[in-house]
Amino acid sequence: MTAPALDVRNLRTHFFIRAGVVKAVDDVSFTVARGEVLGLVGESGSGKSVTGFSIIGLVDPPGRIVDGAILYQSRDLTKLAESEMRTLRGNRIAMIFQDPMMTLNPVLRIDTQMIETVQAHARISHAEARSRARDALGMVGIPSPDERLAAYPHQLSGGMRQRVAIAIALLHRPDVLIADEPTTALDVTIQAQILAEVQTLAAAHGTALIWITHDLSVVAGIADRIAVMYAGRIVETGPVDMVLDTPLHPYTQGLIGSVPSRNRRGEKLRQIPGMTPNLLDLPAGCAFRTRCPRADVNCIREPPPSEPAQGRVVRCFHPLLAA
Amino acid sequence: MTAAPLIELRGVSKQFGATYDAAAQIGRAVSRRLGLARKNEIVRAVDQVDLAVARGEVVGLVGESGCGKSTIGRMIAGIMPPSAGTVRFKGDDIATLPPDRAREAKLKVQMIFQDPYASLNPRLRVEDIVGEAPLVHRLVKPADFDAYVDAQLRRAGLDPAWCRRYPHQFSGGQRQRIGIARALAVNPAFIVADEPISALDVSIQAQILNLFMDLRRDLDLTYLFISHDLGVVEHLSDRVLIMYLGRIVESAPAEEVFARPNHPYTQALLAEVPRIEARRRRFTAVRGEIPSPLAPPTGCHFHPRCPHAMPRCREQVPALREIAPGRSSACHLNDHA
């Protein structure tokens, strides 16, 4: 079997703030294969974005990776010097962010930003870099790319800007692409366009794609495998059909159950009681136990990961057994 | 004779003029002197909309950003006057009612906002956020204030012991409950809910939707539920209105619109909605972008993106016509059927 494109092992990223230590990512392990789409699902504060930032090496103080390894081509990214990381970031490993206005420089034209990115990693002429930038824009479905190259970000619509950001991320045909809620701010018809393009491109280049989102419906449509995060931990991993049809963790079941289309029209939705937890004040043991209908005294201890079926991992003392 | 609808809009439009900063105003003044004046740019956010909501009904208003759905909500809630047309409450035109009756009618229509962080005054305690309006409108005597606020908070699922706290001490879901308690504290009959759950975490959304359904049953409320989330609208609504660029393009009972959408835009919108049941699907795309409301396409606004567009669609605005009992659609294709 070939090695995965990315192998994250026991990653811990903590933030050291005055009020205490926020364990944003706490013992997270997963792999992504070439050409595979992994959906990383969680609510705000679950640590899904910090996991993405950790992989690409953009965790700022007071945050720090305190433990674990991120293996890419048998190198541990957490041990690389910043200069080495710079040769990989935006080149072999790229990221698309939620807000395209934040990633594009508002005072530079699109061509300036794209040519800069090309030349940062490839020793080619300005003209060649420009034609590569134009091709990348065409690839993500931007009409008349030559005109768009001369535009400033504010002259483009939100969907168009996000496509430029995707084109920049894809300039060097990365091996690993991390997409952090790139369609959350966009309208349904524009979201579908972006999903269609990213899907095609990942398949064509064998890019390993990590799609971070809170929206189970988007993940259902695009992912091969799902990892569900809650309070800094992955509580369940597995193939998309198995996780969505027969969830093992009570939290996953609760999330899926509360989707309106999974309920009878007009009837009350099944809801998860309680609030999303404060990471500074997590319950001991399983962080979900205070909201969980199956919790008992055992859950005060930390549930270890178990593998009840091939390719499925769950962290729970009382998993829902597949019928 | 049937009773007048609780809320009725007739030929309602809303236009916004472009605003200019100081430099642009000077520039425009100079160019006017030189005889280069341009016509003022106008956005028709809402264009000739008719709409009626019967008592007890839940109407879902769906559309993408910029289509005018929030503007309609604001005009119904009386936050914004329409540029043309009338808004009627129980058959009375609110704009021509005597002031005391107009105030009474406006009090019966309340709004719940999208952003639970921006819609609560950060300097007021929860008891004042919820209790100020009933006190001002003399719905409650000062002596009964505490008991009244207590009951309002309890009804929205909040602990009354928190009434002296400030909004920043609450989570997003709790803040939205405060917003709901504030709206209900003046005994409204009609609630305009503008994307009330989009800013909340997934596991909290179901809690708030359930609260909406409980309150509707307990208080006999009528809702206009504005959302871009079709799954939520399908679950909650009796009737659904679909908007595109300032116009209502389709109106139908919820079950029918999701089973048999008529307007090409509705069809495209429904096809693009990601669903948890649809795995590893091929996403296709509606071509093109949503046009700028500053320069909407002529005729049917959807024609540049429509797969069935005919020459006529470029020239003639299709009227919203009844195509079956209780169903209307604004599309020229229905003339051939």
Short description:
The complex is a heterodimer of chains A (323) and B (337). By secondary structure, chain A is of the alpha/beta class.
Categorize the overall geometry of chain A.
globular
Please identify which CATH superfamily of the domain at 1-20 and 40-55 and 64-108 and 227-337 in chain B we are dealing with: P-loop containing nucleotide triphosphate hydrolases
Average residue pLDDT of chain A: 89
Low-confidence stretches of chain A: none
Distance between the termini of chain B: 33 Å
Determine and state the CATH class of the domain at 1-20 and 40-55 and 64-108 and 227-337 in chain B.
Alpha Beta
Largest sheet, spatial ordering of strands of chain A: 6-7-8-3-9-10-12-11
| Count of helical regions of chain A | 11
Beta-strand segment tally of chain A: 12
Helix % of chain A is 25-40%
Rg of chain B over CA atoms, rounded to whole Å, is 22 Å
Average of per-residue pLDDT values of chain B: 88
- Within CATH, the superfamily of the domain at 6-92 and 174-187 and 206-314 in chain A carries the name P-loop containing nucleotide triphosphate hydrolases
